[in-house]
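[retry 2/3] ABC transporter ATP-binding protein: previous attempt timed out, resubmitting with same input.
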Amino acid sequence: MDENLKKIIPFALKYKKDVVMNIIYNILYALFSTLSFIALIPMLDVLFKDAEKIVEEPKLTSIWDITSFGNDYLYYYITKLTNESGAQYALLLVVSIIITTFLLKNIFNYLALNHLMLLKNGVLRDLRNKMFDKIISLPISYYSEKRKGDMMARMLGDVNEVKNSFFNILELVIKEPMTIVFTIGAMIAISVKLTLFVFVFIPISGFIISKIGKSLKAKSKKAQDENGYLISVVEETLGGLKVVKSYNAEGTFTNKFNSSIQRLYRLTNSIGRKNNLSSPMSEFMGIVVIAILLWYGGNMVLVETFADGSPLLEGSKFIAYMGLAYNILTPAKAISKASYQVKSGLAAAERVFDVLEVENTITDKENAVVKNSFDSSITIENINFKYEEENVLNNFSLEVPKGKTVALVGQSGSGKSTIANLLTRFYDVQEGSVKIDGIDIKDMTLESLRHLMGLVTQDSILFNDTIKNNILLGKQDATDEEIIAALKVANAYEFVKDLPNGIETNIGDAGGKLSGGQKQRLSIARAVLKNPPIMILDEATSALDTESEKFVQVALENMMQNRTSIVIAHRLSTIQKADKIVVMQKGEIVEQGTHDELLALNGTYSKLVMMQSFE
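[retry 2/3] ABC transporter ATP-binding protein: success.
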């Protein structure tokens, strides 16, 4: 059994009632599908005045004789009806039987499809839920290597492909095979000789069809990977549209998109050709079998006879037999088509489980501590950390007492933002430790650790929603009054109150309707509303113009009052009031002290201040 098939089974087991009902109704469908053709025999017999005459009511002597009893009883009733009321009433009876069998066949087909639909949609929902839970729980480091568009393709396209293709396996192993089994049973009952003749051709056509579908899974996976890349190109182009246009790079991105879509075009054509070949190929093979049957069976009806001169096969039974032989074609076509689709579903399942089985390296320990308060200090002890090969932090140690503001300054690449990533456990420390009140943050639950912290980043991350809903992320049950109070502290209410719908105004994709300074003040308001004891500001003003910076600086100073703050700064004018300034270079502390103390040293900090004062 395929590995991905085994992995899907637990998702399907939740809907075992639907699976069982689908199997039962499919068996009944297969049975009545066969009976609908067998019912043609008495109708043809009545039409050609060839019906078997049974004048004595038959008796059921054994359960094993139920088939012949049913057949004899029907002909007894036809004989009785013909004698008493005329042949047209007997014809009406057999036509009614045909209508009833076809009606039941289609009712059972509908019920089977209904339960299959519930199974498919249920598994689709559960897979998407599981996938989103996984995507949102994986560490930030995972996404530094992955394309967002590819993740979206796996979550939306591939999961849908699993739903649409994979569960055809139920048709593949139950519905169509049972139809074939019942049909062959009926064919054997009519003529063993003719059925053995059919059996010679079925393996040949099966072999040809399986040959066509062999490379389908590999090609389907390639197509799904390419689809993920294509979505990534679109997502990245839209995300960076200003840069694309300002650099006249439309042609570059169009070429990238066109070459991807061309590769996808070739792959999907190749897959489509094989898929399209399955149905006509199986039908043609079937018609060849039927043509040979017509010749061979026709001889049994017209030429070959028993010793008493009667034909080896009655005409009515031969016509019904041909109907049954054609009845095998539909499920045979469905099996070949479904087997192709299952291969495509298995390729999609592989991409889905690639994500679901990624090991999450940043998780809660067993018996992790829930820490609800911050009482004394944050201590960073002897940290060595690297993203890839080279260390970003070297033997780094720092203490941040409660209620103090500590600023980290230094050139780009000195390791300042890495400190923020480690404090929030976006990344885990490799050597050394980070402790809050003497407790290692790895021993705390992630939720309680992050509950103690507020983060304002250089990029204002806002969502396509109202101002209110963006700020509510800080505290889901906050009142409008609390939101407005937070906006006032963040120096943002002065522009929010002038917007057409106030806090109910939608700010567009990534806050695109607002200026950089306005977006940053909303980010600060969100952190203010959360009201955490520890605030981490990662270059919160570096992307702003001078006027916006003044507004934001006032907001930051309001927020940092009576709060423990770690400020990562590029602009030194923003951190002159800090209790301690730590100067970093290549992952190490080279100086630390207050603004005045560091200026007096006339060292690295002093040089940085001089450089910025001339900017």
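[retry 2/3] ABC transporter ATP-binding protein: The mean pLDDT is 79.
[retry 2/3] clearing retry counter.
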